[in-house]
Amino acid sequence: MVCNRNCGLLTGAIIGAVLAIFGGVLIPVGDNLIGKAIKKEAVIANGTIAFENWLVPGSSVYRQFWVFHVLNPSEVLDLGARPKLEQRGPYTYRVRYLPKENVTENSDGTISYMLPNVARFEPDMSVGTENDTITCLNLAVVAAPALYTNTFIQLLLNTWIKASKSSMLQNRTVKELLWGYKDPFLNKVPFPLDPVLGVFYPYNGTSDGLYNVYTGTEDIKKTAIIESYKSKRNLSYWEGYCDLVNGTDGASFPPFVKKDQTLRFFSSDICRSIYGVFQGKQDVKGITLYRFTVPREAFASPAEVRDNYCFCTDEVISKNCTVAGVLDISACKGGRPVYISLPHFLHASDSVLHDVEGLSPNEKEHETFLDVEPITGFTLQFAKRLQVNLLVKPAPKIEALSKVKKPYIFPLLWLNESAVIGDAKAEMFRSKVTGRVQLLSVVQMVLIIAGSVLFVAFMGSYFICRSKKLK
Questions:
Q1: Most buried residue, 39, 147, 295, 368, by CB count within 10 Å?
Q2: 3-state secondary structure string across 305-320
């Protein structure tokens, strides 16, 4: 009887130990199985989950605009006063809803494509209509002295500006400012040029690319990384490594993302590659995501972050490369004096912020972030925020700019392009990816805990019985 009881206790302890060991063994085995499944589904190849989400965004992408309205136009024009600005918006457009075009799978483990540009106004998500009128900077007049520095040419430009009754500021509808209008000054120029301009003109009906990215079929660590942009590995806008096209397009990253990683991605909107660093975890529709944000250091001055030296292109405007928070992208805008920043000059130098009135930088509202599912590398939620500005400079030969006292950066608008995974896609993702991983983790922990408890309980009972028998 005693033997049977002791044998039963030992048998129970052995079963518990086996269960615990089996649970422990499941960890590397399970991780290996998950790894193989993810590697199979995360590559950009026809028939995979990654390909389905890559070809057409798995969620609706919206681009919201806030335009800056000038409250004191008379003082700015007549006295050269600081502009008092008021943001108006959002004016919301749905973008990125068409599938990628000219998709070609190449024999070297890459796939090429074009991104079609399209924007459809969403009145229910907007504060007003596209025909709302605002007082804003005159794009053509302000850009003229930057494009034509010769004194004689500027005298000619002044004649045409006056003939068209143009000034430094103008009244435009939101639609005109964003997508284009026939400019009266340019229409007076007796040379063959397109008189239509707008902040994003031309947009609808155009494409961004050609992109060529690695599929991951030959090396999973290269999945979605851009091999070339417009058939080149560099941009021809910057010096040194700043000119390289680095990382992905931001829609996805190679799988198995770690918290200590720096995620690099390229944005044609700002004509450069940029990066995000881990900030924390987010729960989006039952899926755990890693949030990566673009840090302050990405727009810091070279005086603070030496690696940014090759983004400093004008030592006068940048005050010997000590000004932070603004990026001169005129080289990729045909010489037009376009500057990019974060909204409301977030993380910019005080001198930039104080040249205008009415801005209130706020990190929560104005930072850029990517929420990435770490196992697959898919970006399931993001907000890309940036501000478009023009450099305003004194031009004594152009009367419309004669009251400008010093060069300063004038905000036009800021935008928030954002998306979050849809409910149907989230359910699919939970069932096919995160749900299975969580189930495996639960099984592992149950086996380890249950096995350990059984082992300890039965072994404890066995030794108690042994001690009683010896007494």
A1: 368
A2: CHHHHHHCCCCCCCCC
Say if residues 213 and 226 touch (Cβ distance below 8 Å).
yes
Question: In 3D, which of 407, 361, 343, 418 has the Cα closest to residue 96?
Answer: 418
The pLDDT tens digits for 423-440 are 888 887 777 765 455 544
Q: E strands within 19-139? A: 61-70, 85-95, 101-105, 110-116, 119-121, 133-137
Q: Residue 314's closest CA among 304, 301, 305?
A: 301
Q: Phi/psi class of residue 84: alpha, beta or left (left: φ > 0; alpha: ψ in -120 to 50)?
A: beta
Q: Report the C-alpha gap between 212 and 29 in whole angstroms.
A: 35
Segment-wise mean pLDDT, segments of 10 residues, the chain, 471 residues: 53 50 47 61 83 82 97 96 97 93 94 96 98 98 93 93 96 98 95 93 94 94 96 94 95 94 96 97 93 96 93 89 95 95 97 96 96 92 97 93 95 97 83 56 51 52 58 52
Yes or no: say if 287 and 253 are a contact pair by the CB < 8 Å rule: no
> Which secondary structure element, helix H or strand E, spans residue 393, and what is its range?
none
Q: Which of 414, 417, 349 is nearest to 379 (CA)?
A: 417
Q: What helix, strand, coil percent values describe the chain, rounded to 5?
A: 35, 30, 35
Q: Exposed, middle or buried, 103 (CB in 10 Å: 0-12/13-18/19+)?
A: middle
| Selection from 191, 186, 223 nearest residue 201 by Cα | 186
Contact 409, 389 (CB under 8 A): yes
What does pTM read for this prediction? 0.86
* Count of CB atoms situated within 10 Å of the CB of 432: 13
